[in-house]
Amino acid sequence: MDLDIAAVARLAGVTSRTLRHYDAIGLLAPAATGHDGRRRYGDAELLRLQHILVLRELDVPLDTVASIVDTDDPTLVAALMRDHHAALLARRDRYAALAETVERTLTRLEKGLPMTADDMFDGFDGARYEPEARERWGDDAVDRSNAAWRRLSPEEQRAHLAEHEAVAEALGRQAGTGAEPGSPEVQALVARHHAWVSLFWTPGREAYAGLGRMYAEDPRFRATYDKHGDGTAALLRDAIAVFAETLPA
What we know:
Number of helices: 13
Radius of gyration: 25 Å
Strand content: under 5%
Strand order of the largest sheet: 1-3-2
Largest sheet: 3 strands, antiparallel
CATH architecture of the largest domain: Orthogonal Bundle
Number of domains: 3
Structural class: mainly alpha
Mean pLDDT: 82
Helix content: 55-70%
CATH superfamily of the largest domain: Antibiotic binding domain of TipA-like multidrug resistance regulators
Shape: elongated
CATH class of the largest domain: Mainly Alpha
């Protein structure tokens, strides 16, 4: 394949100016320059451009893009592209969820039906909380969690979210009856909660107890549980404290 800069710009949906900039910063050099002075690109350059554009779609900074695409190892390139593919699929699924949320909002507005705050913001990106999570639990834990989430299929992601909702609802019912944190029924629900958390990160004794305290002390997390009944977050905190004693330090 031998294409000039105008053809590549048209095919890739970028401007010639962008391609010239990539050349100037050493990110994407042309295969050759024609007698007319126009840059020309072959198969290798087009594959590299595809990789660059995928990374840009994933909001990877240009300086980081260069460090990723500068490898001559086909196996490593394939592994990287697999990761990018998974990230793009996750983004596709998020946009699909957002589209469904907007569609439900339109339907309810048109029919004059009520809509909860949870319904309104279902599917919105939780990445705005990522800096806080990295500060609280560290980069390694957040990176492993993100990778584990991306490995799930859309059906598995929905099932995981549904399990959390089911546990929270059941805890709300237990809170409404005045159940004790150490009761078998509540402890069975906390065991499910610990298994739910452990899909991404397996907390030990102190970490899990700390997570329980955060659920009750942080207004955002407390609201997530207390929407199922007043005292649900406090019950979960106290029940986690009991359950945590069975975990390794």
